[in-house]
Design a protein that fits this description.
This protein is of the alpha/beta class.
Length: about 725
């Protein structure tokens, strides 16, 4: 949502002003609610529906001025709704707001008469500007219609209407010379009316369009045979400012008709006396079409070529190299430490950093080279027409050297480096997929050696990836061979001076590689899907541990378990947890599920459903690493959250004003929502004192205890003085 309440739009007061009703159609209820709130904050009258049938009923009423339409609708699609509007000649403007990214879909929507096409996710400012412009355009059209009605009553009013028209209105004599042109020609082309009267129409026509203009701008036909919406280009007067294009050409659509001395238009029997025409400025539509074409082949964040354009250029480069006996170098770049910057400073800073990196990379290349963003923090560079490895080596060294200079992003000084893998055609592959795969493999090789460097692809690198596969296979066997073990880190209530919970943390005791931390294998487990059986094992072990503690008389504690995105989609998750709790006679309140913001946002609808089911069982729900993801206050209200865990990155820098302000905001927000707060990563007394001062009394971190095996964790209950020993 925007930081400030949107300014009222589309309600300019004129003699003919009216208040339009906006209909929002989208089957995504959350998105529907968001759009309704946004429009209402902008001072607009809004009706919403998630059904195509209801949408058609509203449209048929004739009371809808503007339609915000999603294309992908069940039963009745957005395209069918637009067809209905065209067929029934419903006076409604359309703005398509869709997640459909194909150029064809956007082009089809525009040709169906859509005023604009906005892709999800969209900029709120862009959406509001589009709505504002559409309503202003409707208001102008509405004014023009009223004026046209009065045209029949007054010739004077007719002249006024023509001169106020948003289009160029003109008349030509039989020789093609201007006999009339309205004032709109001055604002669009820079010519005064007097400059054009008596001049031949070709004075305004772009040379390449002269032949087409002869049969359109200078139309002699009437009725259905006359010219309607024919595209031409007009030449603007020297030094006239064109608002959109860096050119003196204005794109227009011409509708023209021949005029005869009898309005029946029978050309055979009546004398031709001239041409009447209307030229409409279609600059905005042309820009929209160009934007869609650009977006189809470019990355939206950085405006660099995307994979599609890279593939096209690489295929061309390979064809030329094959003919001229040259090589082609493909470089695959992955930014080192970008995730740290992104997680610490936020995604907005991360996005701006990516744009800055793209600009700096571009400065290292030749004009004939191509820099593409493949996704995330990954870039690919195409170097055509190289003879040996020295060209790519020179570019790689230049990139590494330039990226070491600090980036200043919104006042933050960011340091970043890159790992580069390089493959050559034809030595390392004959097509895009193989070359990028091998360059990617070379990049991972340099990352394994400490990052911030470059490697050329070598066939021996295949062995390294085999080792990666072996680790995956070892992990699949680890569950059956009891190689995983759980450690437990206590969570402390400062006011009560006692342990209220333990967070369960998995470790891998590899028979050959020794003790492996989760950071080294969890991402691979999620990538391969092994996380589901591992996650089920963790939950089972935690419930068994709670049962053992219960036998020892320890009732008032719980265990927190991390849940991954894959587990949220697990069909039998709820049933499994419910069965195991019942089998050990445990209450759901002794178990807590921790889940990150980003995991929830990957599938918000399913996340809300699953977490509500868990919460109904009495299980506590905690949001882990809070403040580092894409959370939304709307979703916080919808989710059954008991606890927010402030990410350790904020606690580490709690002495900084920015991080302190974030922590205060989280605590205040949680208090308002009736949600508990716990701070993780507390390592010093200074951090603890600051948190207590902020009324955060639940903490977790090395200050009190590192993660411990179950046998050692239980000893903390037996040692009644351990808390005082830590504090003192």
């Amino acid at each position: 949502m925007p930081r400030n309440k949107p300014q009222n739009i589309g309600n300019q007061e004129t003699d003919c002003s009216r208040r339009e009703t906006i209909l929002v159609v989208d089957d995504d209820l959350l998105h529907l609610h968001s759009l309704r709130t946004l429009m209402e904050q902008a001072g607009l009258t809004v009706i919403t529906t998630d059904h195509g049938e209801t949408a058609l009923e509203h449209l048929n009423s004739g009371n809808i001025g503007l339609l915000l339409l999603d294309l992908n609708m069940p039963r009745i699609s957005g395209s069918k709704i637009m067809d209905h509007i065209i067929t029934h000649k419903i006076d409604t403007s359309i703005i398509v707001v869709s997640g459909e990214t194909s150029f064809e879909a956007a082009e089809d929507a525009l040709r169906h008469g859509a005023y604009d096409y906005i892709r999800k996710p969209y900029s709120i400012d862009n959406l509001l500007n589009s709505v504002d412009n559409a309503l202003k355009k409707r208001q102008l059209e509405f004014d023009n219609k009223l004026m046209q009605k009065k045209l029949q009553e007054s010739e004077k009013l007719h002249r006024y209407i023509v001169n106020k028209s948003p289009d160029i209105v003109y008349m030509l004599d039989t020789e093609g010379r201007f006999t009339f042109v309205n004032k709109r020609v001055e604002t669009l082309l820079g010519y005064s009316k007097n400059e054009l009267i008596g001049q031949h129409y070709s004075k305004l026509i772009y040379a390449d369009d002269n032949q087409k203009a002869r049969f359109t701008f200078n139309e002699r036909r009437t009725g259905k045979r006359s010219s309607v919406n024919i595209e031409l280009r007009l030449v603007c007067k020297d030094n006239h400012n064109i608002k959109h294009f860096d050119t003196r050409l204005l794109p227009i659509e011409i509708s023209a008709v021949g005029i005869y001395n009898n309005q029946s238009g029978a050309q055979d029997n009546h004398k031709f006396i001239g041409t009447y025409g209307i030229a409409r400025d279609v600059t905005d539509r042309k820009i929209a079409e160009e934007t869609i074409r650009f977006q189809a082949y470019h990355d939206l964040l950085t405006s660099l070529p995307n994979r599609s354009l890279l593939k096209d250029r690489l295929n061309q480069a390979i064809s030329q190299a094959r003919r001229n006996d040259h090589k082609v170098a493909v470089m695959f770049l992955d930014l080192d430490r970008f995730k740290v910057v992104n997680d610490t400073l936020g995604h907005m800073i991360g996005d701006e950093l990516l744009r800055s990196v793209g600009q700096r990379l571009q400065s290292c290349l030749r004009d004939c080279d191509t820099l593409a963003r493949i996704g995330g923090d990954e870039f690919t560079i195409l170097l055509p027409e190289v003879h040996d490895h020295s060209s790519a080596t020179e570019v790689a060294k230049k990139i590494i050297r330039n990226l070491k200079k600090p980036f200043i992003v919104e006042g933050h000084e960011c340091f970043i480096s890159t790992s580069i893998g390089i493959a050559h055609y034809p030595d390392d592959g004959s097509n895009m997929e193989t070359l990028i795969k091998n360059a990617d493999m070379a990049m991972y090789s340099i990352k394994g050696e400490g990052k911030d460097g470059y490697h050329f692809y070598d066939k021996n690198m295949q062995e390294e990836f085999s080792a990666h596969m072996n680790l995956e296979n070892d992990m699949r066997r680890a569950l059956n061979n009891d190689q995983f073990v759980l450690y437990f880190q206590p969570q402390i209530d400062i006011n009560q001076k006692k342990i209220v919970a333990f967070e369960a943390l998995i470790r891998w005791q590899h028979p050959e590689k020794g003790f492996i931390l989760p950071s080294e294998f969890i991402s691979l487990a999620e990538e391969t899907g092994i996380i589901q059986p591992i996650g089920s094992w963790v939950i089972s072990q935690c419930i068994q541990q709670l049962a053992e503690w219960k036998k020892r008389g320890i009732y008032n504690t719980r265990i927190a378990v991390n849940l991954s995105a894959c587990q949220l989609k697990q069909d039998n998750l709820i049933e499994t947890i419910q069965t195991q709790l019942a089998a050990h006679g445990l209450d759901g309140s002794q178990l807590e599920i921790e889940i990150t913001e980003n995991v929830i946002m990957k599938d918000i609808e399913n996340g809300i459903r699953v977490l509500n089911q868990l919460h109904n069982m009495g299980i506590k729900i905690a949001i882990d690493d809070f403040g580092t993801g894409y959370s939304s206050l709307l979703y916080l209200k919808k989710l059954p959250i008991d606890t927010l865990k402030i990410d350790k990155s904020f606690i580490r820098d709690i002495h900084l004003d920015e991080d302190l302000s974030i922590i205060k905001a989280i605590i205040t927000m949680a208090e308002g929502l009736g949600i508990d707060v716990i701070s993780e990563g507390v390592e010093t007394m200074a951090q603890l004192q600051q948190l207590v001062h902020l009324n955060c009394f639940n903490v977790q971190g090395f200050l009190f205890s590192r993660p411990l095996p179950a046998a050692e964790a239980i000893k903390l209950f037996d040692n009644s003085s351990w808390y005082d020993e830590v504090i003192n």
